[in-house]
Design a protein that fits this description.
single chain; TIM Barrel; alpha/beta; binds magnesium ion; 2 domains; 4-stranded antiparallel beta sheet; Enolase-like, domain 1; globular; 368 residues
């Protein structure tokens, strides 16, 4: 077998800076993993956050994991099924982003070799996936309302607004007053404690779809206590980082909805395992994003065609965040707010080689 792998580090500018605690990010960096086997190429994407504020992984550390541990493992086992590979990779590397990148490339390669769409390999069927928009923290109420109005006009099927202490009830009330009974939810990104329960009790009056991650990642018992006091379902995001963590959430009743992020949990196989855990327990599900570029987003959308993904995804149009993307065509929503998977093998989207070299800032080819 003739196998080699290539890592491409890419940087694509954002439309607007993404604000994080350690500063402001203006460029989206990702690592595109290319696996080549007997003349067929498969692509995956490792998309760690730009700094270690969310998890210890960064583009630099994920690159090292891929170069030193994961790619050498694949080169020694190039025909392993991605599902089997996923199980082994958990022993090889602790970095879920790097594992997701390699496993994604492995699924892509398999689907191209079999000439089948990825959703079929994942045991699903083709269907349009509804997309929701996520709107960050805003300085003024008018600015927020302007954005909500603009994205609703584009067709997005639900609106998620970020909240934090001091910016919670007011923005929700303002959006409800201006836009009425639209599908609306909030994401607190773990910014509250159980002592803030009154905020969520008050928000209960606004008929929100869910409260995403109100409490700290590890505050599972407290989240269960909070959920008992609320009518609105809690959605686990940061706290659902692995099948074991989800098991604990289910055991305690700490959430009724699950945001599944393929990158955070280490690839499509683990994500599907968590999806199965969730639906067995009667939980609602939806597909989240970090957000990744199109290579990873397109593959994740195939997972989101499974029936139990019953809320809109956070995957948005490519142009929502990035000035460009590597895939052809770009991700787009239709006027009704749905993403459609194109015909063709694997994800249905193709990596544009010209763009891959245009946005590439580093590269490395590895052979057995
Ligand atoms: Mg979230």
């Amino acid at each position: 077998m003739n196998a080699y792998a290539e890592l491409h580090r890419v940087a694509i500018p954002l439309h607007e800076p993404f604000r994080i605690s350690s500063g402001s990010v203006e460029v989206k960096e990702s690592i595109i993993v290319e696996l080549s086997l007997d003349g067929v190429a498969g692509f995956g994407e490792a998309s760690p956050m730009p700094g270690p504020f969310y998890s210890p992984e960064t583009p630099d550390s994920s690159w090292r994991e891929l170069e030193q541990r994961l790619i050498p493992y694949w080169l020694a086992n190039p025909s392993a099924h991605p599902e089997e590979l996923a199980t082994r990779l958990e022993e090889v590397s602790p970095d879920p982003f790097a594992r997701a990148g390699l496993e994604g490339a492995c699924w892509d390669l398999l689907a191209r070799r079999l000439n089948r769409p990825l959703f079929e390999l994942l045991g699903s069927r083709r269907r349009p996936v509804p997309s929701g928009v996520a709107i960050g923290l805003h300085d003024t109420r008018e600015e927020l309302l302007e954005r909500v109005g603009r994205f609703l006009a584009e067709g997005y099927r639900r609106v998620k607004i970020k909240i934090q202490p001091g910016w919670d009830i007011e923005p929700v009330r303002a959006v409800r007053e201006r836009f009425g009974p639209i599908p609306l939810m909030v994401d607190a990104n773990a910014a509250y404690t159980l002592a803030d329960a009154a905020v969520f009790e008050e928000l209960d009056r606004f008929d929100l779809m869910m409260y995403e991650q109100p409490l700290a990642k590890g505050a599972i018992e407290e989240a269960a206590e909070l959920q008992r006091r609320l009518r609105t379902p809690i959605c686990a995001d940061e706290s659902a980082e692995s099948p074991a963590a989800l098991e604990e959430i289910l055991r305690l009743g700490a959430a009724r909805i699950l945001n599944i992020k393929v990158q955070r949990v280490g690839g499509l196989a683990v994500a599907r395992r968590m999806y199965q855990q969730a639906i067995r327990a009667g939980m609602g599900c939806w597909l989240g994003t970090m957000p990744e570029l199109g290579v990873a987003s397109a593959q994740a959308l195939h997972l989101a065609t499974l029936d139990g993904f019953n809320y809109p995804t956070d995957v948005e149009a490519s142009r929502r965040w990035f000035v460009d993307d590597l895939i052809e065509p770009l991700l787009e929503i239709d006027r009704e707010g749905y993403l459609h998977i194109p015909d063709g093998p694997a994800s249905g989207w193709a990596v544009d080689r010209e763009k891959l070299s245009r946005y590439r800032v580093a590269g490395l080819r590895l052979r057995p």
